[in-house]
Amino acid sequence: MTVSEGSTFPQGVKFNYVPYTPEDSDVLACGVPISMDLDKEIAGKKVVLVAVPGAFTPTCTANHIPPFLEKINELKSKGVDEVIVLSANDPFVMSAWGKALHGADKVKFVSDPNSQFAKANGLDLDLTDKGMGVRVKRFAVIVDKGKVTYIGVDPQGVEKSGVDAVVAKL
User: Fold this and answer.
1) Choosing from 13, 36, 47, 60, which is the catalytic residue?
2) Which end of the chain is more exposed for a tag (fewer CB within 10 A), N or C?
3) Is residue 60 annotated as part of the catalytic site, yes or no?
């Protein structure tokens, strides 16, 4: 499998996440993780999948995801049905991160268990030498009714995977 512009988004992808509920809005509240069947999640929709190497890490927390949250209305006005934030962190960490960023009610913060999707698509990042294991590269993908219309991967910074690059491609 590979994700590339013009290709059909891979099928059979499963992520895990803790659905946001107002009663569990406190950052320390732990919901119950469930599986997300991405085939069903993206069917007939325009979805932006934004991936980061790690929740609560400097670039991801300060520069990458907050602009997506700030511009969620602009994204939706351009036809985006859903924004999904992806990392290899476990679903509890992703849930807490979404709440800490005040965005858990705006986008879904999901986990790529053991970086399975990332590895299968050449989007994994080995940070073992830094004590972080195998992670997900920083990238953004626009999927429109199952077709990949944009993919931007950033080895450094957020030029190709940031919200401004995504908005320009919508």
Assistant:
1) 60
2) N
3) yes
